[in-house]
């Protein structure tokens, strides 16, 4: 069984379109002022994309609580509801930290990971 399915998912809320966002709880790593974690977004309706439908995304997010900023480190989009078939992958070489857009995946991650 892939490690991805051994992780417990913690619901963070929903983003625009009602897509649920979950945190892979075992992925949370704290190093100094930065926290990284894997956040999973399941699309309520598959997104149409060149090459086939996307059923969800798995995003590695880094947040800096003191600054209130976040950055995406990696994005993977899946062509099946089981999150097994990667159809698009992007690894960010130089992540840009900024205040996240309200209601975005990064904003939900920042709010949860920086709770006091």
Note poorly predicted spans.
none
Q: What distance separates the N and C termini?
A: 35 Å
User: Could you say which overall geometry the principal axes of the C-alpha atoms support?
Assistant: globular
Spell out the CATH superfamily.
Answer: Surface-adhesin protein E
**CATH architectural arrangement:** Beta Barrel
The CATH top-level class label: Mainly Beta
What is the topological layout?
Elements lengths: L8 E7 L3 E13 L2 E16 L2 E13 L4 E10 L7 E6 L13 H9 L3
Antiparallel strand pairs: 1-2, 2-3, 3-4, 4-5, 5-6
Please explain how this structure is put together.
The chain has a single domain (3-113), classed as Beta Barrel (Lipocalin), CATH 2.40.128.710. It is 8% helix and 56% strand. The chain has one helix and six strands. The chain has one helix at 105-113; strands at residues 9-15, 19-31, 34-49, 52-64, 69-78, 86-91. The protein has a six-stranded antiparallel sheet with strand order 1-2-3-4-5-6. A hairpin with a 3-residue loop joins β1 (9-15) and β2 (19-31). 23% of the residues are buried. The mean pLDDT is 91.
């Amino acid at each position: 069984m892939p490690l991805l399915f051994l992780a417990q998912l913690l619901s963070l809320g929903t983003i625009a379109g009602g897509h649920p966002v979950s945190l892979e709880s075992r992925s949370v790593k704290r190093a100094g002022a930065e926290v990284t974690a894997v956040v999973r977004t399941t699309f309520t309706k598959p997104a149409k994309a060149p090459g086939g439908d996307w059923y969800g995304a798995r995003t590695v997010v880094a947040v800096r609580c003191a600054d209130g900023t976040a950055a995406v480190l990696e994005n993977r989009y899946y062509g099946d509801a089981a999150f097994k078939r990667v159809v698009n992958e992007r690894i960010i070489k130089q992540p840009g930290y900024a205040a996240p857009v309200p209601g975005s995946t990064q904003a939900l991650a920042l709010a949860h990971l920086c709770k006091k």
